[in-house]
Amino acid sequence: MQAKPRPPATRKQALSAMDHLIATHLVGQHEIAQQVGLNVTDLTTFAFVIEAGDDLLTAGELAERAHVTTGAMTGILNRLERAGYITRRPDPADRRRVRVAAQPDALARTREIYEPYYERVSELFADYTPDEIAVLHDWFTRASAVAADYLEEHCR
Asked: What does the alpha-carbon distance between residue 143 and residue 141 come to, in Å, rounded to a whole number?
């Protein structure tokens, strides 16, 4: 596949486009969270649980990813458990810890909402060469690290 010609863009234009994407995503996450009866932080935490798959995360690992305290994570997990989204399982290596698993029916409900979106994004990725996708992946990964570092430095 040959790269398609792309319109030129400045850093300022790229930053503006990123801001619009983030804003649209934030509004969408809020609306989806309302649809499923959760708040955005709880929905984001559930997304981390889903992403982990069979490699179940601990409450501490989830707190780190969601940028909340372990005490706040306990409340989040309590709400998710009451709502039927997760279950807590004893850690086989350390019985004092628990690991968090998605409930299958909650996972199915969530996938019904997100899969059509991810299909559209996948169609968009189809317009890019493997080399361009590698650049996008690199940029998203590095930008996520920059954002996490900034949160840690300025928001905690």
From this structure: 6
Query: Counting runs of H as helices and runs of E as strands, what totals does the chain give?
Result: 6, 3
pLDDT tens track for 57-90? 999 999 999 989 999 999 999 999 999 999 999 9
How big is the CA angle at 67 (ends 154 and 112), to the nearest 5 degrees? 130
Mind listing the pLDDT tens digit for each residue in 99-137? 999 999 999 999 999 999 999 999 999 999 999 999 999
Structure tokens at 89: 């399982």
Q: d(Cα 5, Cα 101) in Å, to the nearest integer?
A: 44
Tell me how far the alpha carbon of residue 144 is from its chain's centroid.
11
Contact indicator for 79, 71 with CB cutoff of 8 Å:
no
Closest CA to 114 of 52, 36, 41, 20: 36
Q: Which helix (H) or strand (E) holds 44?
A: helix 40-52
